[in-house]
UniProtKB/TrEMBL annotation:
Protein name per UniProt: N-acetyltransferase domain-containing protein
Position of the signal peptide: none
The organism of origin for this protein: Dinothrombium tinctorium
SUPFAM superfamilies the UniProt entry points to: Acyl-CoA N-acyltransferases (Nat)
Superkingdom, taxonomy of origin: Eukaryota
Amino acid sequence: MKSCYTIRQFTPDDVEEVAILFAKIFTEREATAKAVGASLNEYYREASKKVCESSAKESLSFVCVDDSLPTGQQIIGFRLCKTFKIEPTNFSESKVAIISNFMNDMAKKWLREHPEIAENEEMQRKVLTFQGLGVKTGYERLNIATKLCLATLKHAKSLDYQHVITVTTAEASQHLFAYKLNFKEYYSIDFDDYEINGQKPFYGVKKPKSIKCFEFDLNLLN
């Protein structure tokens, strides 16, 4: 494999390519998508395309590109972000709505644990939410995810963001944030224990055992 990949900011022109890659990675690898049985088309239509479109409205996200690949297939990794915001509850009965509502529950949990931010809308605009992270099959173990996150953190700090939060449902992501990026765990819940609307949609997930939520104080970034 030629080492000709570079990291750059995510642009509106990248939306479609990243949305497809995001949906493929998530439905093939992520425990929550497998647990609810979300198909690639469902996740693309109801989640990844919308996340990419919202991310493209802010200059906060990054992609990794391999210029040796054909046009339209050059993006090999992505780190999608947005400014923190509690989204309205999705009352749809779709499988993907379960995941989006779960992510929103985790954001609410973080805000409850930070009352000084909950009561200050200006401070909330200084909080960055990590939305999606993925690396194309065949490009694993090249530290691409780490480099994407570091590029995002440095950029966010330059824009005067103060905090970063992320929810992780994969072992690799949990290891990345805990041990490579030194994020602080603020909340953890076993998949078997997570309940929404009287149901336990992720019951039976054992690898990883828990959902872990992390935060990072950008003032600590060198």
